[in-house]
């Protein structure tokens, strides 16, 4: 959906993220994406939904564009592309200023916190992640 509400998440780069070549190790991007997507969920979902649901990553596809360094100021912008059943599909773009460092497509499964079984989100919860479509309102 093109009307997804973007969520910016500031990334802190730790010395442990730096590899033998002097830039961020590829594995750190996974940690960042997980933190950014979960922060997006907590920021936009109602508190009851946050308490009742957990998220499990199913797949990450990362395209690395440029190296990231220790002192870089980095922002991850998260968009919820769509929800199908208990699955959610995200796009996360990691930037340093205007430079795209990495693009990540990921899919996640929503889990009921009580039963630990896959769970569908209510439509009113999903709608919080998108701006209203003006054509649908007419």
From TrEMBL:
<keyword id="KW-0378">Hydrolase</keyword>
<dbReference type="InterPro" id="IPR050563">
    <property type="entry name" value="4-hydroxybenzoyl-CoA_TE"/>
</dbReference>
<dbReference type="Pfam" id="PF13279">
    <property type="entry name" value="4HBT_2"/>
</dbReference>
<dbReference type="InterPro" id="IPR029069">
    <property type="entry name" value="HotDog_dom_sf"/>
</dbReference>
<protein>
    <submittedName>
        <fullName>Acyl-CoA thioesterase</fullName>
    </submittedName>
</protein>
<dbReference type="GO" id="GO:0047617">
    <property type="term" value="F:fatty acyl-CoA hydrolase activity"/>
</dbReference>
<comment type="similarity">
    <text>Belongs to the 4-hydroxybenzoyl-CoA thioesterase family.</text>
</comment>
């Amino acid at each position: 959906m093109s009307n997804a509400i973007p969520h910016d998440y500031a990334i802190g780069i730790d010395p442990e993220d730096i590899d033998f070549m002097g830039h961020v190790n590829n594995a750190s991007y996974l940690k960042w994406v997980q933190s950014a997507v979960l922060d997006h969920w907590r920021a936009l979902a109602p508190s009851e939904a946050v308490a009742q649901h957990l998220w499990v990553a199913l797949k990450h596809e990362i395209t690395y564009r440029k190296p990231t360094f220790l002192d870089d100021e980095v922002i991850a912008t998260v968009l919820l592309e769509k929800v199908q059943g208990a699955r959610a599909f995200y796009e996360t773009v990691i930037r340093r200023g205007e430079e795209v460092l990495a693009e990540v497509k990921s899919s996640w499964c929503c889990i009921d916190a009580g039963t630990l079984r896959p769970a569908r989100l209510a439509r009113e919860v999903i709608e919080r992640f998108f701006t209203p479509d003006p054509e649908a309102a007419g």
